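Example with several molecule types.
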Amino acid sequence: MATTYRSLEIVPGETGYGRKYVWQAPVRLAHWINALAVTALFLTGLYIANPALAPNGEAANHFVMGTVREIHFVAGYALLFGFLLRIYCFYFGNNYSRSGFPFVWRKEWWADLRAQAMQYLRLERGHVHLGHNALAGLSYTFFVIFLGWCQILTGMALYSETNPGGFWDRLTGWVIPLLGGSYMVHLWHHTIAWSFVVFTIIHLYIVFFDSHQFRNGLITSIISGYKFYQKGDLDHDRWLS
Amino acid sequence: MSERLPSTYAVLEQHGVDRRTFFKYCTSLAAIMGLEASMVPKVMAAMETKPRIPVIWLHGLECTCCSESFIRSSHPIAQDIVLNMISLDYDDTLQAAAGEQVEEIRKKIMKDYKGQYLLAVEGNAPTRDGGVYCMVAGQSFLDILKETAADAKAIVAWGACASYGCVQNARPNPTGAEPVHKIITNKPIINVPGCPPISEVMTGVLAYILTFDQLPELDRTGRPKMFYGQRIHDKCYRRAFFDAGQFVETWDDEGARKGWCLYKMGCRGPMTYNSCPTVKWNAGTSFPIGSGHPCIGCSEPNFWDHGPFYERMADSVPLPGIEATPDQVGKTLAVLTGAGVTAHLASYWARRAGKRVAGKPVDPENTTGEVK
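Resulting structure tokens for the full complex:
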């Protein structure tokens, strides 16, 4: 767990902008798997819930719903493996791969959460974080990790219904009676799906906003892995140490 | 057991049934239970040697549709079950006796066959106000159920009422009706849901219990896997239209005439476990989807509470106090979020523009961090 914080390796005498490697390759990969998979899952999910296309002719010549479901399932598997990859990074990645966890039992974490929220609301700039700030970490933990796992669990439970007694039924079938039957699993799965739309709007806005404010290469950092910072403009993620 | 009841074969013999007919009977029974041909001798052995099971059949808060379904069973016919395989000693709806006589029989069976009899429950028990909303022979059904279940070997919960609660425990459940497994927790219970369950399923379950002297393999919600193991959707003869993406849009459109998938008409087939597409109803004549009607999911928990039968996923989000569908809630939240970030961006720009007008140019490098 990310409980230690290594001191920043700022070269003595360094001036202007510094460059720091923050996101390891598997983290960046997991991010883009998530982004693509969630987009595909949401769009195909909309069709599965309310199939608008209606091909004519013989059923044997078409496989529209079948294909859309197949894409949905493949994207679901991709999301699952992206999540597993990210879990691996949480334990074995670098200091910034690990950050984002809400350390609710640490005063520093709460202080940063409050400071970050107030900065956004009062349009104040604040300082650059190299890892996730507390608010970002909290939103990823809730929207992506918690609700993401909810979607994977309910999704795999629904997927398992086509193969009773199979692998996914044994692994996730318990979700169906827990939520009160297949209908309720469908309903939860469909409801939670919308939270990813809400998250994506907020997430895209904030990364563009922060990138504009700090000019720290935030958007490219999830491709290149590097963030920029200015000496003296760092907010240490103190709750990590 | 105070006296040994005759076996099924003994009773059949008394009725003049020959050996060959008995073979046929056992073979069809094995088939309805989904057993291999090699299991037929086991079924026959059970029929020849096992004593008939005494059954007490209680009727609580219900509509008797389970009994109506049961007496229409064709393989094996209900008459065989009722008269031969089981010893249906108490069923206040079907039996000829009435009044105190009937209640005497129930008490006698409970005493004579303590721990031996099978309790079949049709309907459920209202629990509010001491169970006064369902009284049988001056006693609340809640008490009768507890009293009769105490010495039963096992309990068969017939139908959606006894298994899940059905219409009487739909929101807001004014009488506090609860299914059997919520009231009786110390007995093996087999749920046979449906409104009503398929008659062949009912007789098949009883035949299995008699043949093997144990409950069939149950799923996570206590339903026999052999009849509730798969979704209607996965056995539906209209499945090809689902996969093709061809759906009925209105009751009288071209798709409806061509027998396309009823998914968009609210069909609960993809969420419902039952054997309607394979066993069918009324001696294998048809089933709802077969006659162009979507499945209403009658063998699933709380199917009355899941919005209109003819709309797909029209129920409110599963959160208290919100009467809106997931799509309505989701679109509203998305619009509000969009408005929120737009407002944030607008005020950010307005503030920068304001500073500029005030004669303090915004530093393009923005090196000190604050919006001054």
